[in-house]
UniProtKB/TrEMBL annotation:
<dbReference type="GO" id="GO:0003824">
    <property type="term" value="F:catalytic activity"/>
</dbReference>
<dbReference type="InterPro" id="IPR029045">
    <property type="entry name" value="ClpP/crotonase-like_dom_sf"/>
</dbReference>
<protein>
    <recommendedName>
        <fullName>Benzoyl-CoA-dihydrodiol lyase</fullName>
    </recommendedName>
</protein>
<dbReference type="GO" id="GO:0006635">
    <property type="term" value="P:fatty acid beta-oxidation"/>
</dbReference>
<dbReference type="Pfam" id="PF00378">
    <property type="entry name" value="ECH_1"/>
</dbReference>
<dbReference type="InterPro" id="IPR001753">
    <property type="entry name" value="Enoyl-CoA_hydra/iso"/>
</dbReference>
């Protein structure tokens, strides 16, 4: 995936760090738009969301430029921002909309996903029954007395399809994908609506042979775009779980 950042105004601190994660940064040339990492001169702390790392390692900015930039509270804009590599392109305000569309089409043209067959993510079947939340492969039981939630993850009854075509045929009902979506939905639901629950317990029910067949299929499919998307989905879901484990009260 390619991301384009268009800055019309000032991108300071986290705003510029977000732009740094993109493949291409466009800045409006109006005399006032600029980029900045003012944490050091204003707060006495280093940019902590990857700002310095992306400047030097990703964008290959000279270290002396990075030092000056990070100690300049007002930031840098205009031609100097392009010359130093802080942004990729400078565009006048009257042409920014047209230029950003052209750049977006160029970036889209470099993507090799034109021959990929996607799937439709159908709505999840989430059902509430008293203190229980039921999904297809996940059940969450809430115990109000001890403020806990028990997550039971159920494995599939049949082994993993041996071919990618079989996985695509199952679509959103493919076990690894459906369970990841259900688990993420349950995590977000409890974090948002049940702050009184401060202990989560997890249990997995299923036949190890079948579960291992899915693990092997996912690991053997390195390089396949669809399986890579599922792996990234699981990474995001487990990261949500990790953050939750450090924020439950």
């Amino acid at each position: 995936q390619c991301y384009l950042a268009v800055i019309n105004g000032s991108a300071s601190g986290g705003g510029y760090e977000l732009a740094l994660s993109c493949e291409h940064i466009m800045l409006v040339d109006d005399g006032s738009s600029r980029v900045a990492l003012p944490e050091l001169p204003l707060l006495g702390v280093l940019p902590a969301t990857g700002g310095l790392t992306r400047l030097v390692d990703k964008r290959k900015i000279r270290r002396d430029y990075a030092d000056i930039f990070c100690t300049t509270a007002e930031g840098i804009g205009g031609k100097r921002a392009v010359e130093w590599g802080l942004v990729d392109e400078l565009v006048t305000a009257s042409k920014i909309e047209e230029a950003s569309l052209v750049r977006a089409r160029l970036l889209a043209g470099t993507d090799d996903r034109s021959d990929r067959k996607g799937i439709t993510l159908t709505p999840l079947n989430r059902r509430f029954s008293g203190d229980q939340i039921n999904y297809g492969y996940l059940v969450v039981e809430i115990n109000k007395e001890n403020s806990s939630a028990a997550f039971t993850l159920y494995g599939p009854e049949e082994g993993c399809p041996g071919e990618l075509e079989g996985v695509l045929a199952q679509g959103a009902e493919f076990w690894l994908l459906q369970l990841a979506r259900e688990l993420e939905d349950a995590i977000l639901h409890l974090r948002t609506n049940r702050p009184d629950i401060n202990c989560w317990v997890f249990k997995v029910v299923g036949e190890s042979r079948i579960l291992n067949s899915y693990d092997s299929f996912l690991l053997d499919g390195v390089g396949n775009w669809f399986l890579e998307e599922i792996r990234l989905f699981w990474m995001r879901t487990l990261k949500r779980l990790d953050i939750t484990s450090r924020s439950l009260m």
